[in-house]
């Protein structure tokens, strides 16, 4: 192995190229990462970020180009060999086994053995000491299936930390984390960094780039459009490098909440056996209603219950003046309700099927109220959806598992929109979606609302919540803590309600975030 780079450069990928089925995904791309720094890797959905990181971490081989790691020229046969050398990649799609404990998952493949059997106590002790090192507190004996998505994400990171990698790659690690958990993760990243670990962070969140990263690499269509120290960049510079033009208006203008609005869906004292309590909420036709709050306050149960995926035991659901009950998703679809779940991998898509097949999964004839949607129309609508949402795919016949995460989300959108719902429920709709596509989605939601659709969005993204909602409900411990009309919503008020306090103590007046959105 020959020494080829300066000592402070941990990783150097040179002239990397990759094609899939003749589609060039990375083109002559070079990247470097220094010791003890956090490098942000950003770019639109399908820009090639995951492909690049998969190459760096041995998951796939480049068609050409070379990698130098810790001064040595390396070729990884697979991700195990990269891991051994000190490169760990925590993927967006979590790989934990649900029926094993936290400790067993973390130590998988490296279990301590005594008398030929796994030494369970030692295994859990070792896992616990790794968790201590990264200052994360979770019971190592708990089953992974009992964990929240956020807890799973942290366990994945802990698992990657077992080998104390010199380079830790994190693919959108905060997408399922609450603000507090994100703060915790960032504290951990700072500690690892100060001890000399290098981190590459794939993210779509602007604030994170400026908060935690030292340098940024921007990819567009498989090429690098910018590499720069964060201190030399503004938010606008970065957006411009990502989308190739300046974005002036992030959110389309909101609508007021006049009292004459036609009620579409009304929830009266909705409750369940566990989490939800006395929920009153209303979605008028033609408006976007946001539901916010810290993660895990009952949003998931409420969102799913409105699509027949969770059972309400108390209260009434009233759709267009009629009391309804939703026992399963087909009930909901027949009533014109569409649901975009936060769990796209297992609920939105069948991964081995093609883009087109996934889109044709909804049987429109069966669910259409008047039976007038023909297959031909359906196909046309789907194609329009693909174009409208700019789904990036080498071919409509490509299995959807090969699409980038954000493009998979767009496929789900296009599929549901072709059903012409009258009520659209969305749970974390722009998680993993790039900045440009987010704007497209916001515009689309407003267009749909203007066409009379009622929209209910559950989101933990504060900017999104304030930016798109005509009215916001904030949840706390399974209840609605308060509601705010669009214009009066501020981050401070939402945070107050989210922490279980009433608004009476808050001074009037806006805050920076709301001012930015409203300007
Ligand atoms: N195994 C594969 N076979 C075919 N095409 C692939 C494969 N893996 C990735 N691609 C294609 O390569 C392109 C880049 O995908 P990649 O996942 O690297 O993008 P990304 O920048 O990580 O996007 P996102 O932000 O949405 O996760 C996409 O068009 C994707 O469809």
Task: Describe what this molecule looks like in 3D.
The protein is α/β, with parallel strands linked by helices and about 525 residues long. A six-stranded mixed β-sheet has the order 6-9-10-3-11-12, sandwiched between helices. Strand 9, helix 6 and strand 10 form a beta-alpha-beta unit. It is globular. The site of adenosine-5'-triphosphate (ATP) has 21 residues, from helix 1 and helix 15. This is Ribose import ATP-binding protein RbsA. InterPro entries: AAA+_ATPase (IPR003593), ABC_carbohydrate_import_ATPase (IPR050107), ABC_transporter-like_ATP-bd (IPR003439), ABC_transporter-like_CS (IPR017871), P-loop_NTPase (IPR027417). One of its GO terms (molecular function) is ATP binding.
Q: Which residues form runs of ≥5 with pLDDT under 50?
A: 3-7, 506-510
Distance between the termini: 57 Å
Strand order of the largest sheet: 6-9-10-3-11-12
CATH overall fold name of the largest domain: Rossmann fold
CATH architecture of the largest domain: 3-Layer(aba) Sandwich
What is the rounded Rg? 24 Å
Helix content range: 25-40%
Number of domains: 3
> What is the tally of beta strands?
22
Strand content: 15-25%
Protein structure class = alpha/beta
Ions, cofactors and other bound molecules:
adenosine-5'-triphosphate
Protein name: Ribose import ATP-binding protein RbsA
InterPro entries: AAA+_ATPase, ABC_carbohydrate_import_ATPase, ABC_transporter-like_ATP-bd, ABC_transporter-like_CS, P-loop_NTPase
Keywords: ATP-binding, Nucleotide-binding, Repeat, Transport
GO molecular function: ATP binding
């Amino acid at each position: 192995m020959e020494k080829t780079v300066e000592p402070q450069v941990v990783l150097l990928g040179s002239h990397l190229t990759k094609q899939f089925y003749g589609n060039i995904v990375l083109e002559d791309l070079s990247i470097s990462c220094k010791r003890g720094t956090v490098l942000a890797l950003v770019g639109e959905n399908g820009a090639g970020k995951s492909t690049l990181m998969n190459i760096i971490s041995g998951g796939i081989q480049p068609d050409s180009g070379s990698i130098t790691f810790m001064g040595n020229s390396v070729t990884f046969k697979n991700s195990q060999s990269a891991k051994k050398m000190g490169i760990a990649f925590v993927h967006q799609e979590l790989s934990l086994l649900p029926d094993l404990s936290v400790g067993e998952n973390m130590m998988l493949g490296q279990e301590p053995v005594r008398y030929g059997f796994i030494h369970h106590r030692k295994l859990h002790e070792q896992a616990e000491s790794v968790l201590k090192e990264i200052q994360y507190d979770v019971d190592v004996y708990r089953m992974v299936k009992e964990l929240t998505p956020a807890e799973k994400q942290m366990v994945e990171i802990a698992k990657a930390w077992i080998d104390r990698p010199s380079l830790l790659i994190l693919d959108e690690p905060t997408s399922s984390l609450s603000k507090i958990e994100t703060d915790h993760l960032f504290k951990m990243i700072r500690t690892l960094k100060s001890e000399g670990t290098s981190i590459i962070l794939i993210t779509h969140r602007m604030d994170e780039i400026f908060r935690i990263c030292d340098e940024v690499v921007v990819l567009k269509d498989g090429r690098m459009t910018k590499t720069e120290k964060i201190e030399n960049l503004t938010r606008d510079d970065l957006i411009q490098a990502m989308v190739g033009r300046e974005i002036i208006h992030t959110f389309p203008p909101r609508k007021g909440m006049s009292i004459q609005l036609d009620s579409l869906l009304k929830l009266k004292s909705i409750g369940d056996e566990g989490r939800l309590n006395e929920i009153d909420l209303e979605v008028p036709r033609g408006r976007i209603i946001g539901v916010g709050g810290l993660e895990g306050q009952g949003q998931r149960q409420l969102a799913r219950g409105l699509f027949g995926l969770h059972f309400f035991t108390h209260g009434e659901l009233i759709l267009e003046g009629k009391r309804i009950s939703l026992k399963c998703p087909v009930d909901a679809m027949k009533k014109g309700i569409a649901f975009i779940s936060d769990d796209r991998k297992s609920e939105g898509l069948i991964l081995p099927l093609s883009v087109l097949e996934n889109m044709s999964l909804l049987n429109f004839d069966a669910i259409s109220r008047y039976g007038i949607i023909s297959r031909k129309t359906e196909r046309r609508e789907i194609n329009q959806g693909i174009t409208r949402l700019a789904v990036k795919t080498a071919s409509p016949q490509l299995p959807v598992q090969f699409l980038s995460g954000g493009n998979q989300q767009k496929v789900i959108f296009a599929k549901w929109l072709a059903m012409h719902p009258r009520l659209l429920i969305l749970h974390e709709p722009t998680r993993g979606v790039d900045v440009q596509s987010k704007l497209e989605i916001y515009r689309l939601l407003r267009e749909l609302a203007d066409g009379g659709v009622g929209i209910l969005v559950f989101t933990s993204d504060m900017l999104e919540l304030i930016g798109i909602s005509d009215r916001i409900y904030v949840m706390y411990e399974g209840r609605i803590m308060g509601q705010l009309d669009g214009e009066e919503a501020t981050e401070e008020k939402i945070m107050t309600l989210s922490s279980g306090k009433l608004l009476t103590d808050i001074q009037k007046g806006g805050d920076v975030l709301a001012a930015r959105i409203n300007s």
